[in-house]
Design goal:
Blueprint: H1 2-19, H2 25-47, H3 49-57, H4 67-94, H5 97-129, H6 134-159, H7 163-169, H8 176-184, H9 186-204, H10 207-232, H11 236-262
Length: 263
């Protein structure tokens, strides 16, 4: 409920900016990255006032506070969120409203499948936090691979979904069909790339590697889309995204491999 309310507030903020003719890349980034999360946190605080009171009355034990870990992970998450939206921002600047509409629909379908990855990683994270030996690592990687294979196969299924399915679901947006198919392929890499991500975050507990990876992804998406979209049009961000995810996941995989087999 709180999440949906925060979405509604973001939508109202965007409508207000549009009405006041203040829509810019900066203002949209501000609404998505700051207004939405802040409103969600505020609603949670209001809804759980007794819990907040108990929190402030509780005795502070500094040994359990890991501000460096949390702040680094938060920063890494923001870079990823920005990177995953840069394609749409740049397309909105260079291309027509119709093309932006088709691209937005295709992206929405893909992000719906991405939500399954978040659900899977939430289930797997406690197991990765308990890894102590190399045998545990191999066991959890096999276990995690099976779980993350589900969203990977969903993306693969989207890539090979026949036209008649799209005609039934989105009869007015058939030009988005090929976009959706192509957009799904790079996220197969992202799905399986969550294995080294989980290991780095919960076993190694080194979010700084994730921060480096996401900064690289953000730079590739920003510079790549900025250069490629005016030259190659609406399909350019898909290739840029594939390159960005491949480099990001390769880096995390290298760090994970080095940690497992060199220690």
């Amino acid at each position: 409920i709180y999440l949906n309310i925060s979405y509604a507030i973001k939508l109202c903020a965007l409508i207000a900016l549009w009405y006041l003719n203040l829509i810019t890349v900066t203002s949209v980034i501000f609404v998505f990255c700051f207004v939405g999360p802040i409103m969600f946190i505020l609603l949670c605080c209001i809804g759980y006032i007794p819990l907040i009171r108990s929190f402030f009355k509780a005795r502070l034990q500094t040994k359990y506070i890991r501000f460096k870990y949390t702040s680094t992970y938060f920063l890494a998450s923001q870079f990823f969120q920005l990177a995953s939206r840069m394609d749409l921002f740049i397309i909105s600047y260079y291309l027509t409203r119709v093309e932006v509409g088709y691209y937005t629909l295709a992206q929405k379908i893909i992000l719906t499948v991405v939500s399954t990855i978040i659900s899977v990683t939430q289930v797997l994270s406690p197991s990765f936090a308990k890894i102590k030996t190399k045998l545990d690592t191999i066991k959890e990687f096999r276990h995690g691979f099976i779980y993350l294979l589900l969203p990977a196969l969903l993306f693969l299924a989207v890539s090979f979904t026949p036209d008649f399915v799209f005609k039934i679901l989105f009869p007015q947006f058939l030009p988005a069909t090929q976009l959706t198919r192509m957009m799904a392929l790079p996220f197969i890499i992202y799905s399986l790339g969550n294995l080294p991500l989980l290991y780095i975050l919960y076993t190694m507990q080194k979010p700084s590697y994730l921060l480096i990876s996401n900064i690289c992804y953000f730079l590739i998406m920003t510079i790549g889309c900025y250069v490629a979209v005016p030259l190659y049009g609406i399909y350019a961000p898909i290739y840029v995204n594939g390159i960005g995810l491949l480099i990001s996941v390769s880096y995390l995989s290298f760090v994970t491999y080095k940690k497992i087999y060199t220690n």
